[in-house]
Design brief:
The protein is an alpha+beta fold and 427 residues long. It folds into two domains: 148 residues, Sandwich (Jelly Rolls), CATH 2.60.120; 238 residues, Sandwich (Jelly Rolls). It is 26% helix and 28% strand. The chain starts with a strand and ends in a 9-residue tail after the last strand.
Length: 427
């Protein structure tokens, strides 16, 4: 069965007022349109456009609950949430737990009697929340994962040098971080341990940290003067990010933490995969985001919301790793499949129509369960076991598992989310 679905974008303050309407051909409201959710998440379940198809149910959550095995398969729930995300301002620094940590934390907070709606609660469910994002804008800016310790030292040394170019550097502010970074890794202390100690200090609430943040921002502004251009490259984007973050979150320790992280610019069509423990923040841009259907977020700054420092330090992966680009496979012309290797989801990008670059006249894709698709350009037909459904730019659909293999035609671009493994293999 094909069921047309839609939703109203979430109006988070960091959202763009124009990016989603211009992508999907919908109305601009003058208010932020940050995220369009397509899934069964209770926070904003997708609306069903024709309830006569679903026994009168008006949203995916209630319809799936009425007959879960038939509608989504043996698992009984939809394991993913598909979003269109449009950031005009930076989101919070955050990370997500492993499945094991989520289960333990959920049980622990339940046993402690912490209400599910308590703003200080970390674990709203017992699930992990890996996610991927594919850039739809020409540039998609992000922070993700810890950079190599040698790079962090170079950035701090650069700022100390520029700070001391006219007067003595403020060692009473820089001293604690410089001391922590200068510790040499030993058999008992790795680079990851050093990065952990720096983050722990910055989030400790020490009385000198706000002064450090303010002074570092002023030094970054000085470093961005053209006279220092030969010194700041290749760290200019990171220093520009420091200045911008201070405009949004003045004095927040996450501003300094941003210098410890990889600064990434995705081109249109590039993707990131963010596994458990990867600290990240989206800075700006329009993208397709796909994640496990969980609410478990551990924040690390750039937010007025609760930051549980102790739990965050347990969840974060402090190992310095390369930027986690996710390169799609292209099994046939016109089909790109982003496969992160988790059972919760995969994302397929379909390009059909002989007049479109990289497209094919028809494309086949076989979801391993219930699928959700959205057309972002042109018009696409989707044919399954029950017949053919047509979606135009801005329209979305839900396909039950009994549709089987899907054949796409027409002329347009669509993204299709599906489970990454059969129901028996899902967590």
């Amino acid at each position: 069965m094909f069921v047309p679905i839609t939703n109203t974008p979430r109006d988070y303050a960091w959202g763009s007022e124009t990016a989603i309407p211009r992508l999907l051909g919908t109305e601009e409201t003058g208010e932020p349109q940050a995220e369009l959710w397509l899934g069964a998440h209770p926070g904003s379940p997708a609306r069903i456009l024709d309830p006569s198809l679903t026994g009168g149910h008006t949203d995916l959550e209630s319809w799936i609950a009425s007959d879960p095995t038939r509608i989504v398969g043996r698992r009984g729930t939809l394991p993913y949430l598909l979003k269109i995300l449009a950031a005009a301002a930076p989101l919070s620094l955050q990370a997500h737990p492993t499945l094991e940590r989520a289960r333990e934390g959920f049980e622990r907070e339940n046993a402690a009697g912490v209400p599910l709606d308590d703003p200080k609660r970390n674990y709203k469910d017992a699930l992990h929340k890996p996610e991927l994002v594919v850039a739809l804008s020409e540039r998609y800016e992000a922070l993700c994962g810890f950079r190599a310790l040698v790079e962090v030292r170079q950035i701090v040394d650069l700022l100390v040098m520029i700070d001391g170019s006219q007067t003595a550097p403020r060692w009473e502010l820089y001293g604690p971080i410089v001391h922590l970074l200068e510790d040499s890794p030993t058999a008992f202390e790795s680079d990851a341990d050093i990065l952990r100690s720096v983050v722990s200090y910055l989030l400790s609430g020490a009385e000198e940290v706000p002064a450090l943040v303010g002074h570092l921002v002023r030094t970054a502004e000085k470093a961005l003067h053209p006279a220092h251009a030969h010194l700041t490259d290749p760290y200019t984007p990171s220093l520009e990010t420091v200045v911008r973050l201070n405009e949004e979150y003045p004095g927040d320790p996450g501003i300094v933490i941003s210098l410890l992280l990889n600064r990434v610019t995705l081109a249109k069509g590039q993707a990131l995969y963010l596994p458990a423990g990867n600290i990240h923040a989206y800075l700006s841009g329009l993208g397709v985001e796909l994640m496990a259907a969980s609410d478990n977020v551990l924040r690390g700054g750039l937010t007025p919301k609760h930051v549980d420092v102790a739990e965050l330090l347990e969840v974060l992966d402090f190992d310095a790793l390369p930027v986690p680009y996710l390169v799609p496979t292209q099994p046939v012309p016109g089909l790109s499949v982003f496969t992160p290797g988790v059972p919760d989801f995969v994302l397929a990008q379909v390009e059909v129509g002989i007049d479109r670059p990289f497209a094919a006249p028809t494309v086949g894709f076989t979801p391993l369960g219930a699928a959700i698709g959205i057309c972002i350009a042109g018009a696409v037909t989707v044919t399954g076991a029950s017949g053919t459904h047509r979606v135009s730019r801005g329209e979305a659909f839900f396909a039950t598992p009994d549709e089987g293999s899907l054949a796409f035609g027409g002329s347009g671009t669509a993204f299709v989310a599906a489970p990454g493994a059969p129901a028996a293999e899902l967590p």
